[in-house]
Amino acid sequence: MRKPIIAGNWKMHKTIAEATGLAAELAAAAAALDDVEVIVAPPFTALAGVVGALPADSALRVAAQNCYCEDKGAFTGEIAPSMLVDAGCSHVILGHSERRKIFGENDALINRKVHAALAAGLNVILCIGETLEEREQERMYDVLKTQVSEGLKGLAGEQLARVVIAYEPVWAIGTGRTATSDQAEEAHSFVRGLVGGLFGQSEAEAMRILYGGSVKPENIDGLMARENIDGALVGGASLQAEDFIRIMNFARSG
Q: Which positions are annotated as active-site residues?
């Protein structure tokens, strides 16, 4: 059984005080859940504050939204993976569509970041996904194949166990549009097959694949009912405690 993950990406939102307050609410709710892993990704400025405000045995994990692929050096404005570990992070989000589209990150750079993050002891949430143009041109599968194979290039099996993939159709991020559960399941099944072809069937079955793209309280139950959807990477709805707690408490099957 793959333990579901509900992760909140706060992007460029929340002051330190706002972030620690929201994290405290979410940590209290997460403490009542033993069948789901809950992760929040505050902005860099709030990471240490959020970690410091949580009890040592908190069920809430803290992720960074990005990192660089070097451990130190003259890289003004960048953050090393070891710095995130020092701040108390357990995870880092890499390859988010906004990093790819707005900041021009390519698969080769993202792969270097994946290796650096894993070497530092972080768990990785690797984001992949096609644009609307790529989907309409029927290039979705080619795009996903490239992003998965290049993003995971060079990893050993034990490293792969510390990677989570987040499928986020770019056309559904921040637009209010959401892939139907059928569309999401189709993509997740394809991605799991890619992982199987690259690393083996058992590794593919163990891989957790999250859906990201305008996840809301209203659609989480339908998404989580699908066989290959193992959780969600939540954007805007993670900024409000009530909404994110409802998503954390998605309807369990069985």
A: 96, 168
